[in-house]
Amino acid sequence: PMLPIAQAILLMVVYAVLPLIVVIGMYRLSMMMVVAIALFTIHFWSVLWKFAQWIDENLTVAMHPSTLDQLLDWATLPGPELLNAATRALLLDILLSALMIGMPLIWTMMMGWVGIQVGGMMRHIMADAISPSQDAGKSGASVGSKGIGGLFRRGK
Q1: Burial of 23 (0-12, 13-18, 19+ CB in 10 A)
Q2: More confident residue, 72 or 7
Q3: Per residue in 91-140, pLDDT tens?
Q4: If you compute the radius of gyration of the chain from its CA atoms, what whole number of angstroms results?
Q5: DSSP string spanning the chain?
Q6: What is the rounded CA–CA span in Å between residue 18 and residue 52?
Q7: CA–CA separation, 143 and 149 (whole Å)
Q8: Spatial distance between the Cα atoms of 44 and 41, rounded to a whole number of angstroms
Q9: What are phi and psi of 28, to 5 degrees?
């Protein structure tokens, strides 16, 4: 129950500092893409947690097909079965904890790499888009100065 609360707080912090990020990032498209990927990543954690919960439910049924009710009430189990059930329950808890924390961690690392790559690509795309317009402005200025310079020379 604590993970969705942490997710909500983290989303609240990201949305609260988003205007500051935009201003510090100087309204660059690459920064906007990185923030969009970060928000998508944090929102997707809940999907991963639902997937981990589904795995937990199905593994519990698969590991204890006939004694699912007894698993919840450990006092009714005999001695050796209690140890076996406790071991199984411990393994399931360790697996669920690894899935609940590990999957979002791995997902976040993968999406961080994607965000860095997309931000770099957007930076190169914008640089390539700006340079022809600057070249066009320079060539237009040189053509204009030659034309205007020619008019003044003819008049003299």
Answers
A1: exposed
A2: 7
A3: 888 888 899 999 999 999 999 999 888 888 888 887 777 766 666 566 66
A4: 30
A5: -HHHHHHHHHHHHHHHHHHHHHHHTTT-HHHHHHHHHHHHHHHHHHHHHHHHHHHHHHHHHHH-SS-HHHHH-GGGS-HHHHHHHHHHHHHHHHHHHHHHHHHHHHHHHHHHHHHHHHHHHHHHHHHHHHHHHHHHHHHHHHHHHHHHHHHHHHH-
A6: 30
A7: 10
A8: 5
A9: -75, 140
pTM of whole model > 0.70? no
Spatial distance between the Cα atoms of 42 and 15, rounded to a whole number of angstroms: 12
Question: For the stretch 114-135, what's the b/e string if a residue is b when 16 or more beta carbons lie within 10 angstroms of its beta carbon?
Answer: ebeebbeebeeeeeeeeeeeee
